[in-house]
Write a structure and sequence with these properties.
Chain A: One of its GO terms (cellular component) is endoplasmic reticulum membrane. Chain A: Its EC number is 2.4.1.-. Chain A: GO terms for molecular function: dolichyl pyrophosphate Man9GlcNAc2 alpha-1,3-glucosyltransferase activity. The complex is a heterodimer. By secondary structure, chain A is mainly α. Chain A has 22 helices and 2 strands. In chain A, strands 1-2 form a two-stranded antiparallel ribbon. By secondary structure, chain B is an all-alpha fold. Chain B is built from 20 helices and no strands. Chain B is globular. The chains are: A mainly alpha, B mainly alpha.
Chain lengths: ~525, ~525
């Protein structure tokens, strides 16, 4: 397919097309090519603007719990937090009417809600009036809330993303394609801008931390990671790897063991003091007596980590829920056993990535950080307690970041494409619930249409990966077709949801294995290069 | 190497965005078109132009009515309730999905027309560079935010109509004059707003086709051929309705009545000079001047006859307090004489580019000086000018103010809060893409008009605060008593841009060689 730059162009010859592919490139790249080399900077802005237009367009659709009595959904939860944070004194935030979407995220979410609530109340006080605004679905309120998600993302998520992309030295054209692929990835769009949540803020802080680590700003990076944790506890999925990474950076050498105590203490101090600063306003809100502080603190903690709620909520592609299709786990084991089991399994599964990160030499560690974050969060998704289907964003983000490392001779591109498709597929039951089918199909089809090319092919080359990937795609298609054709038997009303969950879980496991293989191959390559150099 | 340009990937990607706009706001035009589906489906042809069950009576020419007739038979298969005559303001999911996708699918005609235009340039002298520029222009047309705003949110069928227009232009380029005449006549019979640019076609066909034949016999033959083509298309499009009328009541009177009724529906003269929201044309400035004058008279204590205020005027009256009243005849004479001038220029210097320029000029004169102009009519000069803009850099410079004003002047169509994000970010990215690629692609010049450049830049940048004021101004407390202010400012500001674009383009059209 021809575009502008397929013709020889005197002024275009100046650009270095070293890494740009010579053969067929993706549709998205064909869109951008006309703007090279005349307007490179403008291209990034253009991609950002387009992605924002798409986000607003998705936002025109319904949101979770739209006009569904009695509890509505995540939209109402977020709106409700804007309402209570602006109207109640801070000491009641974690106590107020817990039955109606009580606050169950850490304080940074509450502060964010507070600011958004103040702005919103200035625009229209009725949107967040205490009590009377419950389950409000005014279109203007919806527009405001949608805009807050887009702009929060623009402020918190986009800057570190651009920073990360500039850290990875790529051809400008490829960088913009990667940016587009990350920004337009369907799960990101559908969960935050369709279903309605502010995950991009949490991911943005985590990404800020990653960028800071890569640029050796460990203190600022730790602070950012703590902020991510304090925005949504889900960032814990990344915590073991971040811990192993930082600890590894404190060990200058193993033989002889040389430990950089100053760095270690600095990081510890920053981490603890950021926690303290963020929690202080809530914890100290009742006064400074020990009992009051502990009541506030434990109430917040209790709200944030609801261990009594069970191993999973709804149907989610974790190992437990998928295995439940075969053995009724919750009947066989007690609640306490399950907690312990899940803890051990999560620890075991995330151990390898932590070990790789900790013991790998300095120069490899930075290359391993993002894949390790992906595999660790994947382990958490598969094995940990109280997982939501939306948590798929945590492994997805680092996997998408790995698009920067994609080369035509690696399997990585196809695996990232597959994982994105798989995670989109895993959202199908949620999208049906939210009436977002149109948005689901359009964003999914479009992402594949725009970004599939040689760097990001649909199918991996090696037969070992081809079989599971092909099976998985076939399974997805079969599930969608069956859903249209077959009526599920009365005995299993959730047949298709379970089918979805089992397939996704299997796919995630394959990805988990692949990521470890990938990390090992990175280490091996580095070892070989190092060896040949030292000769 | 194969140099065929394909617009299909871009079209598919834009369709994705358009699908996401299904739940967006839709104006009364949505119900207008639904009602036409019902009218054409339920009633015999003879009654189409007489029906007034709904207030949204059929007021487009016959071909559009047949188009709706075809659609209605598909609609019936999807949901029979769509085509029920008394089912007013029906807006179930099925009707929204059907009507919105009919816009998307019919717009494919524009895609094919643009590809035809671009690819027919490829094999000409200097064709590659021209085709490349034409491709950029074609993309700009295809992805124009105006289509998103008017067709896919507000709801109309401009996409495929402009597809027919582009086809007729491409036929003109390829010297397929008969096809050009036929397609343009068909376009007129789809929507009669294109009458305004008919003079350009008339003069082009006369001069480039008929008068440039070698012998006087072949001149007359060409003329007759063209005339017959036009008449044939007109006849074919009116025949079904007239035949149906005649068969029902075999008298000549009934047929004449039918024709008069169609004329009454198509040309309602009971409307005012300006629409409720002033389209950004000369009359917007005129009305604005009148308001400023009357306001200053009030302050100075000079008495004047208070007739009525022009923005508050109901449809049918736009009265000025101080400046002289404008009558339909005056606007007609003004725009007709301007178009005549453009025709004369085309008569003496015929070329494809001049023809395109003549279309642009006619579009401008009708938009700027016409009677009861809608803001949507900005497409009439805008689309042809986009196709012409990359011809040389001076045209490009006169085109930029129009780029900004043609997009931002459509913003008031979407007054809801939900669509603000889409319209702003989509428009900004389109403008950025257009400016950055067109600047690069246009042939370079040696001479720059330094000062005008700066003024034009300042104007374009100034559009952003004006647009922001339109969308967020009404939320400010001190604006609430002056709710007309944001609308008035944007329409006056855009009018300045359109007029600047028109003035500089007229200069180029009349006094330079293209």
């Amino acid at each position: 397919m021809a575009t502008f730059t397929s013709h020889s162009d005197p002024s275009g010859s100046a650009i270095k097309m070293t890494t740009a592919p010579v053969e067929r490139s993706s549709n998205f790249m064909n869109f951008l090519k006309p703007f090279f080399p005349s307007a490179r900077g403008a291209t990034t802005v253009m991609v950002l603007l387009i992605s924002m237009a798409v986000k607003f367009a998705i936002g025109l659709g319904p949101y979770s719990g739209y006009q569904i009595d009695p509890m509505h959904g995540d939209f109402e939860a977020q709106r409700h937090w804007l309402e209570i944070t602006t109207h109640l004194p801070i000491n009641r935030w974690y106590f107020y009417d817990l039955q109606w979407w009580g606050l169950d995220y850490p304080p940074l979410t509450a502060y964010h809600s507070y600011i958004l609530g103040l702005v919103g109340s200035f625009l229209n006080p009725e949107w967040f009036a205490l009590g009377t605004s419950r389950a409000l679905d005014d279109p203007q309120l919806k527009a405001y809330m949608r805009a807050t998600v887009v702009f929060s993302e623009l402020l918190v998520y986009i800057p570190p993303l651009l920073w990360y992309l500039s850290y990875k030295r790529q051809h400008d054209l490829h960088r913009n394609v990667t940016l587009g692929a990350i920004l337009l990835a369907p799960p990101m769009l559908l969960i935050d801008h369709g279903h309605f949540q502010y995950n991009s803020v949490m991911l943005g802080f985590a990404l800020f931390a990653i960028c800071n680590f890569l640029y050796r700003n460990y203190l600022f990076g730790s602070m950012m990671f703590v902020m991510s944790l304090c925005y949504k506890q889900m960032a814990l999925f990344y915590a073991p790897v971040v811990f192993a990474y930082l600890l590894g950076q404190c060990v200058i050498s193993f033989r002889p063991l040389y430990f950089d105590l100053g760095r270690f203490l600095g990081i510890s101090f920053i981490t603890v003091s950021t926690f303290v600063c963020i929690f202080a306003p809530v914890v100290l809100s009742d006064g400074s007596s020990i009992t009051r502080i502990s009541t506030q603190f434990f109430q917040a903690l209790h709200r944030i980590f609801p261990f009594e709620r069970g191993l999973w909520e709804g149907k989610v592609a974790s190992v437990w829920c998928a295995a439940n299709a075969v053995i009724k786990i919750r009947e066989r084991f007690s609640h306490e056993d399950l907690k312990l089991l899940s803890l051990i399994a999560t620890a075991v599964a995330s151990l390898p990535s932590c070990v790789f990160i900790f013991f790998s030499p300095l120069r490899v560690r930075n290359r391993l950080l993002v894949p390790a974050l992906a595999s660790c969060s994947l382990s958490f998704f598969l094995f940990s307690f109280q997982v939501h289907e939306k948590s798929i964003l945590l492994p997805l983000m680092p996997l998408l970041l790995m698009l920067c490392d994609v080369r035509p001779d690696l399997e990585l591109g196809s695996m990232i494409v597959w994982f994105t498709n798989l995670s989109t597929f895993s959202l199908w039951p949620l999208m049906q619930l939210d009436q977002l089918q149109l948005q689901f199909w359009v964003t999914w089809a479009m992402w594949n249409f725009l970004f599939i090319d040689q760097r990001m092919p649909l199918m991996p080359r090696s037969i070992l990966l081809k079989i599971p990937v092909a099976l998985s795609y076939l399974g997805m298609i079969a599930t969608f077709i069956a859903e249209q054709v077959v009526v599920p038997p009365a005995k299993w009303p959730d047949l298709f949801v379970v089918a979805n969950v089992v397939q996704t879980c299997a796919g995630l496991t394959v990805t988990w294995v692949f990521l470890h293989g990938y990390m090992i191959s990175v280490m091996k390559d580095d070892f070989a290069i190092h060896k040949s150099k030292s000769k | 190497m194969d140099y065929k340009y394909s617009l299909i990937p871009q079209a598919i990607a834009s369709i994705a965005l358009k699908l996401l706009l299904f739940p967006a706001y839709k104006s009364t035009d949505f119900e207008v078109h639904r009602n036409w589906l019902a009218v054409t489906y339920s009633l015999p042809l003879r009654s189409w132009y007489f029906d007034n069950t709904s207030e949204w009576t059929l007021d487009y020419p016959p071909l559009f009515a047949y188009f709706e007739y075809c659609l209605s038979h598909i609609a019936k298969l999807i949901d029979p309730k769509i085509v029920q005559l008394n089912n007013l303001n029906y807006d179930s999911v099925s009707v929204i999905a059907f009507q919105r996708s009919s816009v998307i699918i019919s717009e494919l005609l524009l895609v094919s027309a643009l590809s035809y235009l671009v690819n027919s340039l490829t094999y000409r002298p200097n064709g590659l560079a021209r085709a490349r520029r034409a491709f950029a222009s074609a993309l700009a047309v295809l992805l124009y935010p105006g289509f998103i705003i008017i067709d896919h949110i507000h709801f109309q069928y401009n996409g495929f109509l402009y597809g027919i227009l582009v086809y007729s232009i491409a036929f003109a380029l390829n010297k397929r004059y008969i096809a050009c005449a036929a397609s343009f006549t068909a376009l007129l019979l789809f929507k009669h707003i294109y009458l305004y640019i008919a003079p350009a076609y008339f003069m082009f066909l006369l001069r480039s086709y008929a008068l440039s034949q070698p012998t006087s016999f072949s001149k007359i033959a060409a003329l007759t051929k063209t005339a017959f083509t036009v008449l044939f298309v007109v006849f074919v499009s009116f025949a079904p309705i007239l035949v149906d009328t005649y068969l029902n009541d075999p008298t000549l009177d009934s047929v004449v009545d039918q024709l008069i009724q169609i004329k009454v529906r198509l040309f309602p003269f009971s409307r005012g000079l300006c629409h409720a929201y002033w389209a950004p044309n000369f009359w917007a400035l005129y009305a604005f001047a009148d308001r400023v004058l009357s306001f200053s008279y009030e302050i100075l204590g000079i008495s004047y006859s208070k007739i009525s205020s022009s923005t508050r005027g109901l449809v049918g009256d736009t009265a000025f307090a101080i400046l002289p009243q404008i009558t339909p005849k005056m606007t007609f004479i003004l725009s007709a004489s301007l178009e005549l001038l453009a025709m004369l220029k085309l008569l003496f210097y015929p070329s494809y580019e001049r023809f395109l320029g003549c279309i642009v000029f006619c579009g401008f004169s009708s938009f700027l000086f016409g009677w009861h102009v809608h803001e949507k009519a900005i497409l009439l000069p805008f689309i042809p000018m986009t196709l012409l803009s990359l011809h040389n850099r001076r045209i490009l410079e006169s085109y930029y103010p129009l780029v900004f004003s043609s997009v931002f002047s459509l913003f008031p169509l979407l007054f809801g809060t939900a669509e603000i994000g889409v319209k702003w970010f989509y428009s900004l990215s389109w403008i950025l893409a257009l400016v950055s690629s067109f600047n690069f692609l246009a042939p370079s010049i040696t001479r720059r008009r330094f000062l005008l450049d700066r003024v034009s830049h300042a104007y374009n940048i100034g559009m952003i605060p004006v647009g922001l004021f339109l969308d967020f101004g009404p939320a400010l407390p001190f604006i609430r008593n002056y709710s007309f202010l944001p609308l008035m400012i944007i329409s006056v500001y855009c009018a300045l841009g359109v007029i600047a674009s028109w003035v500089s383009f007229s200069w180029l059209y009349f006094f330079t060689s293209f």
